[in-house]
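Sample entry (604 residues):
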Amino acid sequence: MADFVIWDKQEKVLKDIKNIAREAFGRLDRNLVPTVFLLGILSDESEHNEDCIKKLNSIYLYPDGCGYTVDPFLNIWELTAKYIQQDPEKNIWCSVESAQKNLNDAIKARSLAKAVEQIIRSDDISKQKYSYCLFPAFINDYWVFFIFQFDRQTLLSRYLLSKDSSVDPYQTRLFHRSTSLAHALSSICRSEGFGLRRESEVYNIDYIDRVLYDAGSRLMDIAVIAGRAVNSYLYRNCNKLASMKYEGQECQGKILVAIKGHKSIDIKLPFSEPFEISDETVTRKLLETSKGDLSLISDGDKIYGLGVLLDSYDPQEEGVFQINFKKQSEWAFLHNNNILMNVSNTIPSFPRTVINEEKFYDLFRRIFKDIPQNPQYLLELAVNATKQRHGTMLVISEIASQEAKRLKEQSIELKISTLSNELMEFITSIDGAVLLDPSGNCHAIGVILDGLASDKGSSARGSRYNSAIRYIETQREIHKKYQTLIIVISEDGIIDLLPNLQPQISRKKLQKIIEMLESISNEERPNIADYNKIMGWLSNNSFYLSLDQCNKINEIKRSMEKKQTEINKKEIEPNLEPGAGYLMYFVWEDLTPNVDMDDSYFSD
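Predicted structure, serialized as tokens:
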């Protein structure tokens, strides 16, 4: 009985979903990596099935120890029947039998999902969890759910929508209407887990980027649904627009997305003919007109004019969404002035309204490892500094006392003082940085930083960020190491921790992956798929490679290219039909060491 499984690949699928979720959510916020378990509910149409094992496992939880028993789910079909009666499509009848069956199955699936979510969420508060019960799959007479559970306080610190899949009958029945980026990403991780067949533990960062991209697109579907758009690729179009300049100017402007003729939108300047939002050249030009309170008005497919959102809009309707283009390749997706996601270079993220504590502590430990330090106190001060709307900077320096004296002509030097959270909020209201030592003592305020030009700056970022880069890199050149940690709080709410050091990795893992590459290359007929996976990982992590390792990998690469050519000539090309075209394979670029790499980037 304990060995019963719904289908033979359930353990692999659950493992893949967990691994993908760990990697993807870890990129967004490691405090939001979910726990995932499987819930199977035997179909109510399997009453005449004589399979006793299935009957005994009519409610199936996997793995053991997921925190739930079968008891709360024993009356699941009675609760589901109530939701079926409330479904807005219950009384729709189709003339085609197969279409009617598909509709009935969809109604049952989403009603069952609501029933499961009601039961799971009834325990969420006591467990300090927040659960998403994703749309089920039907496998071997079971409705199979994957439940994603998050730390409740962490998730609820983000802005969440309230409507779910059963509310809006217009939406597609294949997946839930996402209520947050976390919800959308959970749905994508589930789908990827079902389709993924990973043969090794080599992770390619490009793959996780694609997962995050798809999650952003999935979240954006709520605006497409609200606008009743038909052929919209809204997420893709917004990324394209954000990357375009108009007469040398970065993309800025706003778009409101809602159903055409929405009662809470006043179109001040209607166009005689609407423009397709997918016509990026025209749309990018029109964005220049969306200044102040004015926004372009769209349904997700077409742009109808310039207008404003009226105060009469009821946020509980969740029918009007806003897109804010902020700067080159950066934009945000909002509802009721609350950010649902920021997007940078096509990849979505949560709004950075708080400091990444894990990264802060990691940088602090690596930069100030040999001197007295008070990271918790400094983190509290930094959190209070984020309340400044105009932005500010905190400079934590190993030589704060000397720097205060050196920069006294462009700062206000203090007698060494400790700061309260309240004082921090006040002193950051003036221009310039706050200079502290790693123990938390303040040496100067209103500091104007100096430094030589650096190729690590960014023309797409403001003067505050670039002055921090110049200062920190100049100090590094002088002292031959990083001895300063700067927290940059920009006016638009972005928080940067500088230097932005690469994360530490395991030296043993790196060596093992190189050995795997070498082993594949020694095979008479190497597995090209595994070779490409490993080369992808090494290319994305080339920062950590030494000169000898780069030379070794490049030598293997050339050997593999020669083998691929020989295999193609002997085995594949002779079997091609005439006119079949050229045979292609992936050619990797040579790897070179990074001058910034040293042993501090290894965790072992």
